[in-house]
Amino acid sequence: MRACYIGVDLGGTKIATGAGDQTGAILVRDVRPTEAHKGTEATINNIKASIRQVLEQLGPDLQVCGIGVGSPGPLSVSEGVVYSAPNLGWDHVPIRQILKDEFGVRVEVGNDANVAGLAEWRFGAGEQCRNMIYVTVSTGIGGGIIVDGKLLLGSHDFAGEIGHMIMVENGPLCGCGRRGCFETLASGTAIARRAQEAVRLGVPTAMLELVDGDIDRIDSAVVARADAAGDALASEILDEAIRYLSIGLGNLVTIFNPDRIVIGGGVSNIGDRLFRPLRRMILSRAMRESVSRVEIHRAKLGSDVGVVGAMCLVMD
Amino acid sequence: MRACYIGVDLGGTKIATGAGDQTGAILVRDVRPTEAHKGTEATINNIKASIRQVLEQLGPDLQVCGIGVGSPGPLSVSEGVVYSAPNLGWDHVPIRQILKDEFGVRVEVGNDANVAGLAEWRFGAGEQCRNMIYVTVSTGIGGGIIVDGKLLLGSHDFAGEIGHMIMVENGPLCGCGRRGCFETLASGTAIARRAQEAVRLGVPTAMLELVDGDIDRIDSAVVARADAAGDALASEILDEAIRYLSIGLGNLVTIFNPDRIVIGGGVSNIGDRLFRPLRRMILSRAMRESVSRVEIHRAKLGSDVGVVGAMCLVMD
After folding, report:
1. pTM of the complete model beyond 0.95
2. What pLDDT, on a 0 to 100 scale, did the predictor assign at position B73?
3. Does the structure show a pLDDT above 90 at B86?
4. CATH number of B2-119+304-312: 1.50.10.10, 1.20.210.10, 3.30.450.90, 3.30.420.40?
5. Which residues does residue A69 pair with via DSSP β-bridges, in sequence order?
6. Where does the pLDDT of residue A73 fall: very low under 50, low under 70, confident under 90, or very high at 90 and above?
7. I need a labelling partner for A263 at 20 to 30 A (CA). Which of A12, A272, B12, B31 fits?
8. Second CATH level (architecture) for the domain B128-299
9. Which residues 115-134 on chain A approach chain B with CB closer than 8 angstroms?
10. Would strands B132-137 and B141-147 be described as parallel, antiparallel, or unpaired?
11. Cβ contacts (< 8 Å) between A251 and chain B: which residues?
12. With DSSP H G I counted as helix, E B as strand and the rest as coil, what are the percentages for chain A, rounded to 5?
């Protein structure tokens, strides 16, 4: 019998489930809609059905050692309860107990950005270095921080919410209700918002053409494409986001003195145009002794990161 | 025989050495000038003499288990070397080996703010809670961060330099060469600088009288006294520093989800006038789930914190 681990990546629109072995390779998958609008019960049934579908596809030589669930937070790892997940409409759902009762195996729950950090650390760009900051830059900014080879959870499992560090007092309004959070300045959403605002003010740009005049369709990928084509506004907006990234990540370097920063999420797909200036700019943003020794890597696991990270939760 | 531990608090102007037992009580002390201007050799000889003086006063029932040294950094805990300490004029001094050769016992070295955090965690206001942020607010701002009951050192022992988080891009110039660091906005020096600047601009204030017209003598204690007497300028400056403290410490709460924040250093002597608004303001500056569960305490160990913290380095 070979040990195998189930990972559930629970998102606002889809549930991705996979079964994998201890190399982090995914052997079997299932993806289906979350259907959050149908209520908590329906979403839980979809999770169960997705896990069942994966189990049915497993070969007879595989023994399921546990189920890990990566979920939007805040949640309690120790209690296995998702306290609140606005995207799912969840309120205090004891998902660990529910799945334990259903499948009779060990179940663990983790914050989605945290488990992604765990996956990159164990099987991806982190290469199991001692201290690592994982940051996912997409709609928001999330973090997974590894301290001495262990995920930083804090006293109530809320640690690592780096997207909500306040970086500009009275800055742009954040979904959390406060202002000037890191993710209002450097996320994909922030890049898109700034571009749309500028276009609406009539700043000349090639972006308008790229979206056939539909300003709402300008996102960070459009900004990156326009920048690559030499559009001045797009370049300025990208540079600004990278500048804030260098300050936010620089502060984390000053605080944690990590070996490595690993950047994932949609915005990391911009690639060298993001990483090259970021590596240069961060040098003047963090304590010299620490920042001169840190490596900045692009995440490796791509869209599998959530499933693999959830698997990691039950791997030891 | 009773175990006893030597702690050396190495500062730019004085060396304080103590011997204590495992309750953290200091039994014997010595204080003498650092004499940094006389060179590294002279300072090292002063440290040795101070330790010898303490050893001579020890009763015959006490067995010295080790010597801990708290030093300005950056330094390497694992190598026992102080890389650079501008206040001491030190450059790559292997202080651990030097003291080991001299006294033949275990020697450990730690960053001064780090060991102060260790002392408050073990014997002071931290009460050995699981996760704690110690912050000393005086000339600069230093930190000692306890994660799961262990001092956060990072990969090269430079972690916890919270005074150099950049909080205002292009803010006031910092001693580290960058701009807008936490300590340029919320330290005792920052409070004094802002008060002196305003007075020089002619803003009416009672502070001028408190220092007999000598503007250079306005420090954070003078600002606090003027504030207590109802001086509007002093109140505004104090409020501003507290606002920045709430943002900086709020960010650390969002990142670490600690049980407790412990604040020491000269500025903490302002007392309730600092702690009351800080506790209120931080609630809107950090992630709700984390900040609603954090306690903010004033440090307990006073001026002994450096010696006790150095002792802690050799206590296990």
Report:
1. yes
2. 86
3. no
4. 3.30.420.40
5. A8, A109
6. confident
7. A12
8. 2-Layer Sandwich (3.30)
9. 129-131
10. antiparallel
11. 165-166, 251
12. 45, 25, 30
